[in-house]
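Researcher: Please translate sequence to structure tokens.
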Amino acid sequence: MTKPVKIQVNDLSVYYTGHRALNDVTLSIRANEILAIFGPAHSGRSTLLRTLNRLNDLIDGVLIDGQVLLDGEDIYAPSVDVVALRRRVGMVFALPIPLPGTIWSNVTYGPRLSGLHDKGRLDAIIERTLRQAALWDEVKDRLDEPAADLSGGQRQRLCIARVLALEPGVILLDAPTSGLDPISTAKVEESLQQLKNDYTIVIVPHSVQQAARVADQAAFFLAGELVEHGIGHDIFTNPRDKRTEDYITGRFG
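Model: Translation complete:
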């Protein structure tokens, strides 16, 4: 059964001080699937990711033309609360930087900032999110230890748990395993396969190989243009566009 559309991008173009980073992109992102956005450097992948929760608003000189609908609502409408939007569409970055303090305080930071101080409910959030991020069994007896003591892979899963604590509907990940070893990378990828049961996931993977491993849907970008979008397995085994085939097979990029 076809899953409902969670995010609909219509005729989206993004300009940075006159330079066009995305060119007239139209794309449907379905609920409870992993969309892998891949392509060479400067293809527009991260620009699209940052457009989905309005992080591009923070860049001087940016101009956005087109429409991004989340659950049918235009996220660029004047009435949209951007802070609330970023709770609904959380972002995990390439460099996993814990907040100062303990593992417990890191994961509960968002809920506490929103006014939740009941320790029982916070403890429940801790266990739920760390389990979802495949980190609970490794840190359940270390919650009062500094988050800075965690390994790189554990830090990245902690950052995922921190996003999950805000109960988003969508999780954006920008090269989340680019600095991790193969074992840590595999754990993060495994957690994503579990998370898609409850969340919609959009990832800019750090390699074509990772894109092929994790993608339910895949979108290939080149020089700001969406070249090809479809079922991940089909794109990586039988791409329709020669540019996609050339990139996947290593002829460029």
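Researcher: Any highlights?
Model: The longest strand covers residues 5-16.
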